Amino acid sequence: IYTIALHDLDYFKYTLPTIERYAERIGGDFVKVETPNINFDTLHYEKFYTADLLERYERVLLLDADVIVTPHAENIFKVYPDKNKVYGYNENGEGAMDRDGFVESVLHDGVEWDKSNGKYVYFNAGVVLMSNTFKDILKDYKGIKEKPEWDKSVGLSSQTLLNYMTFKNKIPFGNLSYSFNRMFLGESDINCARLEADFIHYAGHDTFSGGDKLKTIKHDYEKLWGKK
Q1: Beta partners for 89?
Q2: What span, in angstroms and rounded, lies between the C-alpha atoms of 135 and 140?
Q3: Which of 57, 55, 42, 46 is nearest to 4 (CA)?
Q4: What is the pTM of this model?
Q5: Is 89 helix (H, G, I), strand (E, B) or coil?
Q6: In 3-state terms, the chain is what percent helix, strand and coil (to 5)?
Q7: Closest among 117, 126, 72 to 98, alpha carbons compared
């Protein structure tokens, strides 16, 4: 399980222990990176260090540091066993999300992009399960990002690039259950239904605490794991 933990953010004291406990429980290694390995463009590109890890591991779960793993979380490696697939949560068309613009900005490169319910599949990069069949493809992130025509592309984030690499190279995609990447998606979730999920991902605008991400993470940690 690979997590990028740069800058020692306040919420790490709540999120990282839950990821480490999960790794121990399911018999996996927890690789926590606290200094950059990639040093390319933005820190989000540290996700592509996954290619190096896939030289050593058969499968790697890329998990953002703003994720709490709940005590009852299932073993994602067993729930999604197909080693030929990249697994992620398709966030396009869900709630407040509309990612077609990101996809359309890179279609000039001739990629045949998967669709679901009439919209392009676009998975969130906060929780991604990959196998070592993907490692050589991941290594080309610099070459793709630095193409002159890509500089003009809208929304070419590391997340869009990871999606692009998947569909450009015809890697089979498997959609994760929302329970493995539970976000707010425009809903306040006042009743805290998210606590029943496997992984709670605090990405985007926090509508539960009015934008106070740390407050929500602390609240959820204490509900699930007790006082720190």
Answers
A1: 124
A2: 10
A3: 46
A4: 0.95
A5: strand
A6: 35, 15, 45
A7: 117
